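Sorry, explain these tokens?

***
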Amino acid sequence: MKSRFVFEVLSLIAAAVLTQVNCGRITSAKILGFDWKNCGNPDAPAVLKSLSVSPDPISIPGDLTASASGSTSVELTAPLSLNVTLEKEVAGFWVKIPCLEEMGSCHYKDLCDILNQLIPAGQDCPEPLHTYDLPCHCPFKAGLYSLPQSDFYLPDIDLPFWLTNGNYRAQGVLGSQDKELGCLKIALSIHSD
């Protein structure tokens, strides 16, 4: 479940980052060197076990292949918070990007509410979640979750000016009732026209 949930969270964060600010149309972009690792305690309830994306570089617009697996030892219920820290490398130093229009280093109070806004209750989960019977709403039951290798198309996107051309790293800490449930770090480079 964690992997599916983490994949959904990453998708939500990407969707939020890529759709909420209209600072210029990107005709093409490339994401290079995508890397990830768990950063929580070894006994964290929510753990991403595998995440694979290809090709490298990922072209936008273009095709993406992804797979993921993970687990949660506890049911993930609302409110489910996410604290994101986003940094950009500037002149050899990592600079924290502040929360601007709900993007950057932000605290999201309830991912369950965000999921409900993106995918209204009663609506089928989007592909490929629907095909693999993976849920897209809270609560997420304790257990193992797996998204087999799946193909996606990434359309043209709008990026804010501060989220182009550079090296980035992000950390997301998933929590509930002041308890850390899991932590994930991601690193990548973005190059756009």
